[in-house]
């Protein structure tokens, strides 16, 4: 059984933030062998939303964050599932939770191999593939519904 958590930046406890940064570091820096500034100053603002799933022992299984870019556009990022928990639909569950009831536009920069995950939620690739920190990415956008802005 898993538990869904949903918190704005200022609501995170030190232990929650530590677990989140630990998983991000384990996967994006160590597993993907990529030196980049994961701690980018965007985790603590009130308009940043963190969503994650924990297992029965409280361990962090999967995570993503939703940023608010200047102008109000929502940006999904740092989508990650612990290695041992992959392929069980956890990232898809977090995507569904992040987008539930949302009508505004969303954007994300997908690692090219993972585009299928986002396409299932209405994200459409745009522009050319590009390298970010040496990893191939593609920008994907999910249009607002019926001209909604929020
Ligand atoms: C990408 C990632 C978050 C997927 O997490 P997950 O919990 O295993 O994903 P799910 O089980 O919810 O899979 C949902 C969909 O994602 C896609 N997907 C997941 N892993 C994939 C992979 N390794 N290759 C291609 N597509 C994949 C599939 O479309 C899958 O749909 P399916 O169930 O019909 O096959 C996980 O593999 C991960 O943490 N990778 C390392 C970090 C990373 O690259 N994050 C993505 C940044 S854009």
TrEMBL record:
This is GNAT family N-acetyltransferase. SUPFAM superfamilies: Acyl-CoA N-acyltransferases (Nat). InterPro entries: Acyl_CoA_acyltransferase (IPR016181), GNAT_dom (IPR000182). Pfam families: Acetyltransf_10. It comes from Amycolatopsis ultiminotia. Residues 7-145 form the N-acetyltransferase domain. Gene3D superfamilies: 3.40.630.30.
């Amino acid at each position: 059984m898993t538990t869904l958590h949903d918190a704005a930046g200022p609501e995170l406890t030190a232990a929650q933030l530590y677990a989140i940064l630990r998983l991000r570091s384990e996967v994006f820096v160590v597993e993907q062998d990529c030196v980049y500034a994961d701690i980018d100053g965007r985790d603590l603002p009130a308009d940043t939303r963190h969503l994650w799933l924990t297992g029965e022992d409280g361990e962090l299984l999967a995570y993503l964050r939703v940023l608010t870019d200047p102008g109000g556009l929502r940006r999904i990022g740092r989508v990650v599932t612990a290695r041992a928990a992959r392929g069980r639909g956890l990232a898809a569950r977090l995507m569904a939770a992040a987008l539930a009831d949302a009508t505004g536009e969303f954007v994300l920069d997908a690692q090219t191999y993972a585009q299928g995950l986002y396409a299932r939620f209405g994200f459409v690739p745009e522009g050319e593939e590009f390298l970010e920190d040496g990893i191939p990415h593609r920008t994907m956008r999910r249009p607002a519904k019926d001209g909604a802005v929020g």
